[in-house]
Amino acid sequence: MVESIIAKFGLKPDPEGGYFRETYRSRGEIHESALPNEFQGNRNYATGIYFLLTSDTFSAFHSIKQDEMWHFYTGSPLKLHIISDSGTYESQIIGNDFLNGEIPQFTVPADHWFAAETITPDGYSFVGCTVAPGFDFEDFVMPKRIELLEKFPQHGDIIKKFTRT
Fold first, then answer.
1. Can you give the CATH number for the domain in which 88 is found?
2. Do residues 71 and 127 touch, judged by C-beta distance below 8 A?
3. Is the pLDDT of residue 165 over 90?
4. pTM of the model
5. How many domains does the chain have?
6. Which tens digit of pLDDT belongs to each residue from 134-145?
7. Domain extent for 18
């Protein structure tokens, strides 16, 4: 099934883990002067991607300067692990078992560190992500394990589990 989804949607390896393909980038842009100071250059109004994650890997802790809305499509529920800059940890399961606490979409706030895992062994999670202002790799940070451990030592176990270096 995974290979079929990768082929059908033209997915490519994602630097954080899993596979992705950009599906939307607005034509309109927000001028740099209208964006907060941490942005360098213009940004599209919004972007969207397909994202596929399998249970044999994970999406490593990373952060972006924008809010990122996750949308569940099919497969195993996906668990997001989120650490705020103040060190608060939370998790959220996105999926379609609404009566057991799963939700079909969730927004990770800007500048939060987050990672993701497919919950079902030998499973996959097919989701979408929408970012506004639009995603640019200039806004992407994937820190080394030691950086997060120094910043959030109280979350050592989860950081070690969802970082690669």
1. 2.60.120.10
2. yes
3. no
4. 0.94
5. 1
6. 999 999 999 999
7. 2-161
